[in-house]
Amino acid sequence: MTTHGDRLLAGLKDLYESQELTDVILVADDRHVPCHRNILAACSPYFRAMFTMEVCESDKRSIQLHEISPETLTTIVDYIYTGQVNINNLNVQSLLTAANMMQIESLTDLCIEHTGSQVDVDNCVDVFSLADVNGLEQLKSTTKQFIFDHFEDVARTDTLSLIDLDFMLEIVAADELNTEKEERVFEVLEHWVEFDYEARSRYFPILFQLIRLPLIEKNILTSILATNRLIHGHPDCQDLLVSVINKSTCSSRINSTLRKGMFTRKMLIFSGGAIHENTRSFTCFDPDTRKNYIGIEQQPTFDSQFKVDYFKLIVAKDATILFLGGILYDKQKLDEHCTALTTVYKYAQQERSWLPCSPMQQGRCSFAVSSYHGRVYVLGGAASYPRGRVIDHVEFYDTEMDVWQQVEPMPLGISHHAAATFSDFIYILGGIDDDNAYLNTVLMYSIPRDTWTLVQTELLRPRADGTAITYQEKIYLLGGADKHANNVTMEIYDPVRNRWSYGTDFPEERKIMASTLFSDCIYVSGGFKSLPTRPGHYRRSRTVESRDLFKYDLMSGKWSREVKIIQYGSSTCCVATTLNINYLSESEFISQE
Prior knowledge:
single chain; 593 residues; alpha+beta; Potassium Channel Kv1.1, Chain A; Serine Threonine Protein Phosphatase 5, Tetratricopeptide repeat; 3 domains; 5-stranded antiparallel β-sheet; 4-stranded antiparallel β-sheet; 16 helices; 32 strands; 25% helix; SKP1/BTB/POZ_sf; kelch repeat; BTB/POZ_dom; Kelch-typ_b-propeller
């Protein structure tokens, strides 16, 4: 139903397009735009003041608008009469500047909304400058926070060389900088001064005092003292640096507070179901400090509602953590053909939430996953559970473009298999086929050629639910089971020589599935053990899940148990990457040996 407001707006548009009853002409270069004073004044305090106050433009028929392009003027007047505008990356800057000058608040807000949604590492400094020049405090604040949060990436673009002194002072003084190393802040300062040495070198002593020198390693400070011309050109800076190197009294007065990005730790990461079907848990363990952390709470262990199983976690390019597929238990019910999920989530550290990504083309559980540069490959699996079609479908996810692309399928459908990337190839080891046969085969996928090959080699014995880890030109295969027993043997495959060797067996009889590379070690989380019955009892043995943590030293080839219990550990899946503990809640529970 057309409202009075709609009819009024349509009538104004008709008067504008037919140029009837116009009483003022706005001019930008050679573009003349006839308008109505009342309409302009009603939408813009800038024009209202111009037409009602005693200024020279108040009674002029033609008004020249300087520093506004003809295209921008036409777009703004069209918006005033219609309420519609097409904002894009090409016109947003000129529109924002003009709308802000004319005090057209609604259009300014639309431009700010568009600009804020398009901020990235390459343009954030330009957006900050635009907001600063136009006095747009909200946009300025959010863009500044973006620069602080992505400081390392922004610093690599050299755009920080263009900022003014005031913003450089803010950056060097900020606790909120997301940088792991203080020397990176000094490098940015150095490049900023060198970009315009004649004009900026006199500011160096003021800025240098804000560098947190005690956070920089002594050998780096010594190198700066010996070679840096900015230091040599300012004796006060030289004396300050020497005092820090020698740890003299005056150096204790220098700020040594850690910046935000310096609270990072490499962690083991676990996930699974949470309190809602559209989210996942996120918990961590620090093997060095033995502390447990929570990003998102798990679902209670006694409650199977929203439990997710047979999924995959993977750390992709730029420490992107993805949660893919699996089976969702709904109120502890799981029928014979529960469809596997297509869902994909990316973990956002600062928000402490899983963000939805583009879904997979094929729902899958009990599949394999492998990372290759900016791609994440998902291979095979089952389309449903527990009795589901085993699939040969393969696709990859582009982490930057947020799109999936199907590639050549596997020669046969396989589930419960292991995958590892080596060079430009993905190797598939073991698994279960559509006839429920346990496999000892090795398949090789050539990423550049998009072709599959059956490798002329075999596993020592068939294996499913194992984990494959690439380390120093070798693929380590461990865990899982066959039809008859758990597999505690570690097989080591050399893809170059097509040869096998063996590592040290896992020290306990259990089915292990959650293994990951962590520095020069493989960590194994938990596993499933069978407890024997007492003599004289006829009950079958019970399977229980362990919550301990074992470490395999890849240098010595020795196993060791690190802790008895990881508070939020999982025997299903784990990965490792660096996280900022400021975005996690620390548990009071400390895991013990």
